[in-house]
Design a protein that fits this description.
The protein is α/β, with parallel strands linked by helices. It has 2 domains: 2-26 and 33-355, Glycosidases (TIM Barrel); 360-436, Sandwich (Immunoglobulin-like), CATH 2.60.40. The protein has helices spanning 2-18, 38-41, 53-65, 77-80, 90-101, 135-148, 173-190, 213-219, 247-261, 288-303, 341-353; strands at 28-30, 36-37, 42-46, 70-76, 81-83, 86-87, 105-111, 154-157, 196-202, 228-232, 267-269, 310-313, 356-359, 373-379, 384-389, 395-398, 404-408, 413-417, 423-426, 432-436. The strands form 4 sheets. Strands 1, 2, 13, 14, 15, 17, 18 and 20 form an 8-stranded mixed β-sheet that branches. Strands 3-4-7-8-9-10-11-12 form an 8-stranded parallel barrel. Strand 14 and strand 15 form a beta hairpin. The protein is globular and about 75 Å long. The termini are far apart.
Length: 437
């Protein structure tokens, strides 16, 4: 256990040196470790309880139209148990039945403390953002939910405990480890066949001062619980926090490798994505609706190569003014449930690739293109696909390919290429897909 924790600390410290720093430009030929089946790999977060059943069932239909089936949903303890042993679950009962009827797979996470058991000072306006006085009571409530809703496919324990907005007055790895251990034990006693997922740690499990919560949890021996590991790799750009840094791929590759070697059963990214908000500017840069579509496709292509077992885009639908300005606009759908450019781009992307991709060797490229990302696949029919983009436009030449079709999922444009000689195509900062037999 100590060996794994030490290795993780070294990896994270090394990666932090790259965080936000530009590295020498180079080509990035990435290859996935295994096949990708989109309906199993890609899920979305959803806030169905913010909407009426009529509205959220429409959202479910939009999700299914993409060929996807996994949703991650939040449950706030203080909203479910208004006072001790006084439960407010009627709307949740309806939602779980609708999920089952729609044949969607779900992971629910329970977060926050009910008022009767919070450790918050009485005068604090953040009663639910403090951990409970007794983790066993939280664990009992998770077990009650699992018994009441046996159709739920997985249960996740808390959310982002390395952020003050979810664990006050400060992050506490030992406190969270106690909560996770109690909850895992309680859940497995009533639903032994359902996976238990650790809290999705914000970013790469970063803590104030540069420490890592994964490293601290490793020192506490949480690996013995055999829970699915999750984190939320938000960055400013699909490739990292600074143009040209490639720190997303560097950090995820190293972190996931250490997590695999620690013996975790699976690695999930339970949140990632970008808001299309128009300001005022918060932590995320303002990229607009078209930028959101571009960023999501590039990041999805990258995540498919980085040894995640499942990833959940944040989020399915835009939210109303109960959310912060930025958080209102992460959706694939607008507030009325209509497709945004990101939904349409993802729909085209999934149509081009088909439901399943198998990793392939990259084709020969005639000339080096600085900053080129390229990912090679074969689809179910054996057709070759190459996903590619580069920050600066350049001509991509493929000597071994004489005819191909160029797809732009952002616009829906398709272009036949090749006249019997090499295929040549202009790269763009946004993702394009080349297909050929």
């Amino acid at each position: 256990m100590r060996k794994i924790a030490t290795a993780l600390m070294i990896v994270l410290l090394g990666s932090l040196l790259l965080w936000g720093m530009r590295v020498d430009a180079q080509m990035h030929a990435l290859k996935a470790p295994r096949e990708v089946v989109w309906k199993d790999f890609l899920g979305v977060n959803a806030q169905f309880l913010w909407f009426s059943p009529e509205r959220y069932n429409q959202q479910m239909e939009r999700l299914k139209a993409l060929g996807l089936q996994w949703v991650r949903l939040d449950l706030h303890w203080d909203q479910l148990e208004l006072a001790e042993d006084q439960y407010n679950v009627a709307a949740l009962d309806v939602l779980v039945r609708d999920l089952e009827r729609q044949q969607l797979k779900s992971v629910f996470y329970l977060v926050g403390s009910a008022r009767f058991i919070t450790t918050a000072p009485p005068e604090s306006p953040y009663q639910d953002q403090y951990p409970p006085r007794d983790p066993e009571v939280f664990a009992q409530r998770m077990a009650l939910l699992a018994m009441r809703y046996p159709s739920v496919d997985a249960w996740q324990v808390w959310n982002e405990p390395n952020l003050i907005g979810f664990w006050r007055p400060e992050a506490d790895a030992a406190g969270y480890a106690r909560l996770l251990e109690a909850s895992t034990r309680a859940l497995r006693s009533v639903a032994p066949d359902k996976p238990v997922v650790g809290a999705g740690l914000a970013f790469f499990s970063d803590l104030p001062g540069g420490a890592s919560m994964f490293e601290q949890l490793g020192q506490l021996g949480v690996q013995r619980l055999n829970t699915i590991v999750a984190y939320h790799p938000y960055t400013q750009l699909p490739e990292g926090n600074m143009r040209g840094s490639n720190d997303f791929a560097l950090r995820t590759r190293e972190l996931n490798d250490v997590l695999r070697r620690s013996g975790v059963p699976a690695i999930w990214a339970t949140e990632w994505g970008w808001s299309s908000y128009s300001g005022p500017k918060e932590a995320q840069d303002i990229i607009g609706r078209n930028g959101q579509a571009d960023y999501v496709l590039r990041r999805l292509a990258l995540m498919s190569t980085q040894d995640f077992d499942r990833v959940f885009l944040f989020t399915l639908n835009d939210l109303d003014t109960r959310a912060t300005v930025r958080d209102r606009d992460y959706g694939l759908l607008d507030l009325e449930g209509n497709p945004k450019p990101v939904y349409l781009a993802l729909q085209r992307f999934l149509k081009i690739t088909g439901p399943r991709l198998v990793p392939a060797e990259p084709p020969q490229i005639a000339k080096k293109i600085d900053g080129l990302y390229n990912i090679a696949w074969k689809d179910e029919k054996g057709r070759n696909l190459l996903m590619f983009w580069a920050e600066k436009g350049a001509e991509l030449e493929l000597p071994g390919v004489t005819r191909a079709v160029l797809h732009d999922p952002l616009t829906g444009r398709e272009t036949a290429l090749g006249n019997g000689s090499w295929v040549k195509v202009k790269t763009k900062p946004s993702l394009q897909i080349l297909t050929w037999d």
